[in-house]
Specification:
Length: 296
């Protein structure tokens, strides 16, 4: 669609989500202050809000509205943020930088970081449980979708296998398992949640599920590539860390050029999945392209 500005769209949706998150989170002055400061520190550390934006764009692609899915979009971002806090811990990736700032445990200490992550995850499900009283069935389905995507058969499971695979030879099927679950599961669930809350047809939901699966994997491959090709200034975190830790990544298993080709193939799959959608899905099309073209 001519004239569609993806950067402006992402900016507008991010600002909307940030305002909503501001209204959801407790203030820094509320007791226990240090916990609430730690929670807010990571939530407002400058994330792209890709997951909530995808949720909103998915809803819009089938006739839903941003307003009707905002709280669920915020819940997804809280789950994502909790996962980043815990990923950065000394017992996991032991990272010092996230989004160009010291990681949560570097500022607040390891115990406070763990508790901040726990509190964000719990708050997310508090928000989800409040649901939409006019459509309780769809709201309950979305809780199930997101819980499954975040748990041992989704994001947490992918992180567990990722840690277990450090320093070992990793096959392509195992690598795909890690990426599909650690990163892709919550992205796929975000796309599905927006569609479900907006009463998508089964055909639309199937198409958006294929889209979400493809962009979820492409997003993590792009991250792997940025850890090799990117810079600390652009990515906001130390580059080359994956190689130092001998983590399972696409460049390590397939090489950088093949990784870029695989990411492009996945974006083509995503585009094909929503080919039959009208102009309301233009944001999804542009986000797919942005995922592999971004530098952070």
């Amino acid at each position: 669609m001519a004239g569609f500005d993806i950067k402006e769209y992402l900016k507008e949706k991010k600002e909307h989500v940030d305002r909503a998150l501001e209204g959801i989170l407790h203030g820094e002055g509320e007791f226990p202050q240090n916990l609430h400061k730690a929670m807010r520190y990571s939530v407002f550390a400058g994330g792209k809000r890709i997951r909530p934006v995808l949720l909103i764009a998915s809803a819009e692609s089938v006739g839903g509205s941003m307003k009707s899915v905002t709280n669920v979009a915020c819940a997804v971002e809280l789950i994502h943020t909790y996962s980043l806090i815990h990923d950065d811990l000394p017992s996991m990736d032991n990272d010092d930088l996230r989004r160009g700032k010291p990681t949560n445990h570097k500022v607040f200490g390891e115990a406070a970081a763990i508790l901040a992550g726990d509190a964000l995850l719990t708050l997310a499900f508090d928000i989800l449980a409040q649901g939409n009283k006019d459509n309780a069935g769809n709201a309950l389905t979305v809780i199930h979708e997101i819980a499954k995507a975040a748990g041992s058969t989704g994001m947490v499971g992918g992180q567990a296998v990722d840690i277990e695979s450090e320093g070992r030879e990793c096959s392509l099927p195992l690598l795909e398992y890690i990426h599909i679950h650690k990163t892709g599961a919550l992205i796929r669930a975000s796309v599905r949640a927006g569609a479900i809350l907006s009463s998508a047809s089964s055909q639309q939901l199937d198409a958006l599920t294929r889209y979400g699966k493809a962009v979820g994997l492409a997003f993590q491959i792009a991250d792997d590539i940025l850890d090799v090709d990117g810079s600390q200034e652009s990515t906001g975190k130390t580059v080359g860390g994956d190689a130092k830790k001998k983590k399972a990544t696409y460049p390590r298993v397939m090489g950088i050029n093949e990784s870029k080709m695989r990411a492009k193939e996945l974006i083509d799959i995503a585009m094909d999945s929503i080919e039959g959608f009208d102009n309301r899905a233009e944001a999804l099309r542009r986000i797919a392209g942005y995922i592999v073209e971004r530098n952070r």
